[in-house]
Every structure is written in C-alpha cells, then in structure tokens.
Homoserine O-acetyltransferase
Amino acid sequence: MPIRIPDALPATAALESENIFVMTEFRALHQDIRPLRVLILNLMPTKIATETQIMRKLSNTPLQIEVELLRTRSHEAKNVSREHLETFYRTFDEVRNEHFDGLIITGAPVEKLDFSDVDYWDELVDIMDWSTTNVHSTLHICWGAQAGLFHHYGIDKHELPAKLSGVYEHVLEKPSSPLVRGLDDRFFAVHSRYTGVDEGAVRAHPELEVVASSPEAGLYLVKSVDSRRFFVFGHPEYDADTLRLEYERDVRAGIDPDVPVNYFPGDDPAREPLCMWRAQAQLLYTNWLNYYVYQTTPYDVTCAGVEE
C-alpha cells in the first residue's frame, strides 16, 4: 500500500524514482480506507533528507500511511527555506487538538547541551506530554530517544569519551518481541552520537525493557512495558552515504574525526561505503507500524492515546 504525502513535497519525486508507491492527495480522497495518521517531529537540520529517509521506511509496508510533518516554533531552522517549512510543516498549536496513530521524534545535533539549554526544550516537553493522551504509539530516535527517556523516566544522558560513529554488530536480548520479528540473531545498525544513557538505570527501571543492544555501542532498542513508547539509540533511517557526509563535514570543520567504524571497506574513506543495515532498519519500522500501531490503535483516530 502507498504512503500519502503532499504532492509537492521533495520526497515525493525521490520516492517515486525508487518505484515506491506514493499516493496523491487527490487519489487518497477517493478511497474508502482509514489510513494510519503518523506525525513526524523533525528536529534534524537536514530536514528534507530526513523527511525522505523516514518516509522511505514508512512507505515500504502493506499499510496506507498519511504522514504529516511537525516543526518546533521556538527554533529557527537554518538549513531549509522558510517556504518549505510553511508549506509542508505544521506547528504544535495547529495539531494539539488532533489525535494520531503514531508519532516519530527524530534525533537532533544538540547532544552536548543540557536538555534545559536546548532552545525548544519546553516546547518538546509539551509535545511529549501531549503524546501520552493524543498519540497511540511514539517512536523516539537517537537524541529524541535520550530526551524521551529523560522526560518520561528521569534517566539522564552523559557525554562519551569520543563520538560513537559507525556500523556496529548487535544482538537480540528479547527475540520474542514483535518489534524485532524477522531480524537475524546478529545484525548491524548505525550509531552517530556524542552521548549515551545510563544503561544500568534503563535495565533497572520496571517500566522499561531492553530489546536489542551492542557490546560496543550499548543500547539500541528499548521499549516501555506497555508498548506505548519506543526508543532507538541509533539511526536506522540513515542512507548509505549519510555517515560519509557527516564525516566529510567534520573533516572540513577541522574536528579531526575518527573514521566511522565498520563503514568504509578497509576503513578507507576514499572507498564507497557498504550499507549493511538496510534490511533491519526496514523491518524495525515495519514491525513498529504493524504490531504496535496498526494492530492496536483504535479505529476511531480521535480515541488514539485516550486511556480506556
């Protein structure tokens, strides 16, 4: 089934060029199907790239998805035009009275700041609080996962000795979880971050459970016991060249970054990187949508998030 997004969104052309079925708004209006409403709070500076990456994962499922994009009003984006934001994004004030089957909160390049020092932190707190009553299931990614753990469960982040960047091998700690159904016993996933969370505090929290982790990179998949909140500490949405673009950006900035681990063949940045995480990333999004959104969300979307 297709993903339903605005006709003029840049991601539309990119996805269609990959033979992904993108449904026009006109055609969607003439179908008697209740699509899943998924809201993406895009906190990444590379907004158009992130939109396309996440929508690519959402679109490759048998479900019809209606995607809406959310931005923070309290932060001025510098890497995308105001016209793009005003055309395709909504603000929290515009959606606060609505209900959604799913919410995705992306990462953000603010890891080294204390949460309270992030200029949109208060607004993000309002959105996370709102999600408990107006969203059926929320997927938090990278810094978004750290922010969600801190706000909902009081588990803070800490700075790592060096940036964790690369493709790491992971193991399933709870292979019976539908979230990882179909994943191999050992799989690769991307991490790109300067901070981590207190793994011991996560494992000890009675409302949280660890689904997958890495001996090198630490926690990867964590979920709430009630299956309403999901935390992904990597970047499953990344394209094959995203880590390379980040690495080259840091080189140009004079940061002298380490070469991303297990990414370039022979650890040679001059060689084309291999994408070893695409399949697990797609399964992760598909499983979240199927088992934790579609199969459990109320048919009446206005009831999504409402406690029975």
Observations:
- The two ends are 30 Å apart (CA to CA).
- DSSP finds ten helices and twelve strands in the chain.
- The first helix runs from residue 10 to 17.
